[in-house]
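Need Disease resistance R13L4/SHOC-2-like LRR domain-containing protein's 3D structure for a figure. Predict it.
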Amino acid sequence: MLNKNGTEMIEGIIIDNKRESSKMFNLRADAFSKMKKLRLLKLLCKLKMMDLEGFQNLIKTPDFTTASNLEVLTLKGCTKLVDVHPSIAVLKSLKVLNLKDCKSLRSFPTIIRMEYLETLILSGCSSLVRFPEIDGKMKRLKTLDLSGCYRVENLSENLQHEKFLEELDLTETAITEPPSFIFQFKNLKVLSFNGCKRGRTNSIAPMLPSFSGLSSLRELKLRDCNLCEGDIPPDISGLSFLKELDLSGNNFVSIPASLTRLSKLEVLILSNCNMCTLGEADIHGLSSLKWLYLNDNNFITVPLALTQLSKLKLIALSNCMKLNSLPELPTSIEDVWLEGCSSLEVVASPSKVCNLVDSAAIRAFNCFKLVENMNALTLLRKHLKVD
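Structure prediction for Disease resistance R13L4/SHOC-2-like LRR domain-containing protein:
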């Protein structure tokens, strides 16, 4: 079967590794790639891992009743999969269930009782309408990814008992606001949510003060939530371990002052926020910042205050079409993104804009006014590499 010789004639497979239970038996999608006539797949006994990633002919999963020892089930990219057999809901040994990009999946058990489940990935299941109810005994779940489940509107209330949940991704769902019980997840490290591009209001704004209680958060993504500068509470500084914050697609006049208290923050994304100024906010509090993304905004200049960010490696200013000048930047800078900055004319002290290392780059495509500037040409010649 591993050599795929004669597999195009196979119509049924029964896998029973009872006699060799000590051996690892893996099923991968490529072993089934030529089985166009396969109608029966029955799993027995000690099977622990099944990987059918990308198996395009799979429409329904097999009955898992006899696969009670299954620990990892990967059906990622099975784009024609419509139904998951109800027996999957009681696989008590299952730890990882990956159904990513099963875009035709409509049917899923209404209640799941996978006591040992740690990772549930349903991202990209765009036809799935309902997230299943969770049995109260499921208390080991660490990762739940529903991103791209456009039709899912609610989460199971029993999810509040998942005290060990570490990652929750609700981006591109029909869920209008994060459920209030998420603030009980003291182990939550990654939270992703997005909003108003599909007509949502800023109903998430009143919830923001409660985020400070999620003291274990490392990554927080609240894109397109129609947030304004005043919506970011001062006590966001309670997220003392936060390393990545993505607030792109919101509405800020400038960098919200309350963000400058996040001393452990390494990545800040404020792209497409309609910012007309970066202001002179006291940003030295962002002492750990390494990557700053400010693409698609409307400010004209970049403040000298950025030189205070001594660890900054990348500043992204692509498509800031009103930006007309760039000051000296911290000597730590390795990459500057300026694509589409069509009004950019002045680069202050080109040799000091950044202390470019060999592997770094300035990206300045379609900066037509900059090309006409002699200082810019000097800078480009300095870093031009000829093979």
